[in-house]
Amino acid sequence: MPIANHPDLVDSRPPFRTRTFASIGVAVTVLAFSFTWSATTVHATTAPPQHSVTHLLTTKKASTFPQIGDRGQAVRALQQALVAQGVTVIGGVDGIFGQGTSSALKTFQLSKGLDVSGAMNSTTAFLLGLAPSPALPIFGQRGASVRALQQALTNASISVRGGIDGIFGAGTTSAVAAYQTSHGLTATGVVDITTAISLGIVEGSTQAQAVPTTTVPSPTVPTTTAPSTTVPVIATPSQFPVSGDNNDAVKALQKALVAAGISLKGGVDGRFGAGTTNAVTTFQQNMRVAATGVVDQLTAQLLGLTPAPMLPKKGDSGDVVTVLQNLLITAGMTVKGGADGKFGTATSTAISAFQNAQGLKATGILDLRTALYLGFIPGLATTTPGASTTTTTTPPSTTPTNTPATLPTVFPVLGPCWFTDTWKAPRSGGRQHEGVDIIAKSGTPIYAVTNGTITRVFLDHPGSLGGNAVRLTALDGTYFHYAHLSAFADGAALGATVVAGQVIGYVGSTGSSSTPHLHFEYHPGGGAASNPYLVVKPLDACKSTTPPTTTAPTTTSPTTTVPAA
Length: 565
Description:
- The chain is α+β, with helices and mostly antiparallel strands.
- The protein has four domains: 3-127, no CATH class; 137-230, Muramoyl-pentapeptide Carboxypeptidase, domain 1; 237-303, PGBD-like superfamily/PGBD (Muramoyl-pentapeptide Carboxypeptidase, domain 1, Orthogonal Bundle), CATH 1.10.101.10; 405-565, Glucose Permease (Domain IIA) (Distorted Sandwich).
- 25% of the residues lie in helices and 8% in strands.
- It has 14 helices and eleven strands.
- Helix 3 crosses helix 11 (319-330).
- The termini are far apart.
- 46% of the residues are buried.
């Protein structure tokens, strides 16, 4: 059902009905508060209950949303909603709309791909759970809003069968699905809020500067597209290679994939077939973006095929730097001096600390990948271990989402140990390394990194590469491969259910191995291997000799022999 027609979002409430916005984890209960709005101030009155804060937020035009200088319960509800979304509000939930609240709004808007204005509008209010969805075009509808949608699709180089006729039929549905595919969104053909923001057809989206303050798109569509102040549009999706192409652009893509350490079946042949699609998917998984196999703008930027967006650098100042600093603080990093809008040594140090926590090279420079993991630019598809924030591309609504793959929650080896990033390093026979090698003393306990089931057990034999090995599979199909074990632990037999932190084996040197170590692989969703260094580095416990706090339900003493194959 389209969001605009969802029964829970239609503003047909009885005057005294109590409502709770559970989708954002904040209860905003309408009881005895009632207010009369002016342009800058909220005054308490004895107005009837239907003039409550929630009623005003969900029925008034955008100009009557809380704004700079306002005080009261409506501002407090806004601040609570921001906090519930993981955004730091400097000054706390004090009911005063000052620069701290405006900066927090900017942080939230940036994470959702909206225009970073620091002011409330209908789209921002909906994403915060404070208002119904803006009116979105739906199948069968006719009129100006459909024409605006069709024009936006055409501007994005998406062909609309039937042209800009103002009729939302099969041609428009197909065009919406094509646009969603090219932008790494779930291809439903339905205009959800994420698609509408991306197209710039709702108030507050970066391409909709001329959209009026009503929730219905303007019938007059701008002829030019205004890019975001922080993430300018470098190229349209049509400029990127697509499946079926056979040209130099595909060769450039394939070379970039190989340079990024991605195995490419068929080599650099200039043909965009299944091998290239699989390679793009693997690269996207490694980068933690939507793994669609389609080259969208973010993927092209990460591969270096198009210039990265202009990002704040040392010496810069202003609102964009404040947004960056607030995101660092929200992620648990210390920014000495706070979010002062000045990119100096303190901000650079905080970026280095964040990069270390994410397993990235600690440069102190806000590069594209760091900006992605931090949530400074949208597109991150998974929850990042070790960070307190999660960047998503969809709001708390009925919009379809891609469920992130299971991530480790426990480091797989007891310290002391040592490891580094050897992803895709060359191996004998032309192979490439598809794991991370954690060096430790033989017999060191190895732990289940998540709850799951032992789905495969491999025994050492002459010619074996991995020796004694075990596969741990999570509920979503994601599996972790442990190799070169000296022994298996009791309770870790084939079909056994284990919990995160349970000992499942012991470090060894069986198979093709010259020194005791654990070869550890990560296969998101049960698919191709993805660089495990990125997901174990934030959990690094090599300096700890204390076992995980989670205790296993079974005895885990080492076995002295390995059963014969």
